[in-house]
Amino acid sequence: MRSFRSRRTLRATLLAATCALTLVGTSACALTGGGSSASTGSVSAAAADRSVQAGSGQTPTYPAPIPLAEGAAASLDKLSYDGGTPTIAYLPMGTEFNYHLALYEGIKSVPGAESFMLSPYSGSDQAGQLGMLQDVTSRPDVDAILLISFDEHSLAPLVQKAVDAGKAVIIINSDIPNYPSPVDGVVGVSQRVANKKLAQYAVQQSDGSPRQVGILNGEPSYLDTERSGGFIDGLAGSNWTVTAQVNGGWSVEKGNTAAMDLLQANPGVTVLYAANDYMAEGAALAVKSLGRTDVQVYGYDGDTAAIEAIANKDGITATTNTNPVAMGAMAAQYAIDLLNRKAQVGYVDAPTEIVTAENAATILQNPDGLFPKPSQDY
């Protein structure tokens, strides 16, 4: 089993290798690629089957788009693409988290398109992402933009300019139905629904006794509101109560500090929920450091290290796998279909699955659908 320290080292090594390729803009990384994958699955054998296809060179499929809120859909008539091999620009908020790199693994694997990534290192570098969005909007060779947006209001004016310039703009890793400016699509997970199901699962697995819950929030954002709010929704009607909420800053290190503080201030807490797996990994480390064997830790995302921790019973109880590699592939294929007028503007709701000790090894046995790869064979 890998330690949490070795997992952090792995992330740092991967990031250093990635950023060493090309520097673009302010503290930015740029990558190129092209290839396929498939959609994520529900809690069933189909989830594993679809994960096997990720990175296989096959054309990915995705659920039928759901109409966006009124006024939130851009018109495909604005697209300037007129055939040939399209170029897709991917702009995540930052490369400090493997999740954003995993999305790109799926994007660049889709056949029939060229792709590249522009990204600041830090997700807090809003100015860096704004500058990169302006850059790709001005490039005549860019046909579609896949964008992760934590602060939709600051990006909306530039998104509008990109749409007006004839680019297909798709918000990825989100389920926001009413982006402030019209977009060509949204691809992500119904985060509130998925986290509500995770909380309901956790309660169902308990012995019926009351539990005190501590929540590690991410930075204030739509993402945290939906994720943490969904988990709280799932506790309704149960004898589990939320005792404390602390900002865990989305990272392993900050999640570790937040969990340590929360547990020391609230020793009655026996359940920790983290709004992403990095904070969950940090929380599990805090639980170990405090010698607590009575605390369950739940996460969200489907980070490889978290899935391994679940499989090895190494501190994390369960998580929701959103399968970012497959999501990235779906988003890229959706972009291609929009450019060719073969799809409707809307929201693509990627399926999820709850990962437990019972099914974690099965997911890890399909490494082509994961990034980074598992540390060992399962």
TrEMBL record:
Q: Which UniProt keywords apply?
A: Signal
Subcellular location(s): the record lists: Cell envelope
Q: Which domain of life is it from?
A: Bacteria
A single GO molecular-function term is: carbohydrate binding
Cite a single Pfam family from the UniProt record.
Peripla_BP_4
Q: Which GO terms describe its cellular component?
A: cell envelope
Q: Which residue positions does the secretion signal occupy?
A: 1-30
Domain Periplasmic binding protein intervals: 118-342
Q: Which family does it belong to?
A: Belongs to the bacterial solute-binding protein 2 family.
**PANTHER family, A to Z:** D-ALLOSE-BINDING PERIPLASMIC PROTEIN-RELATED
Name of this chain's protein: Periplasmic binding protein/LacI transcriptional regulator
> Which organism does this sequence originate in?
Nakamurella multipartita (strain ATCC 700099 / DSM 44233 / CIP 104796 / JCM 9543 / NBRC 105858 / Y-104)
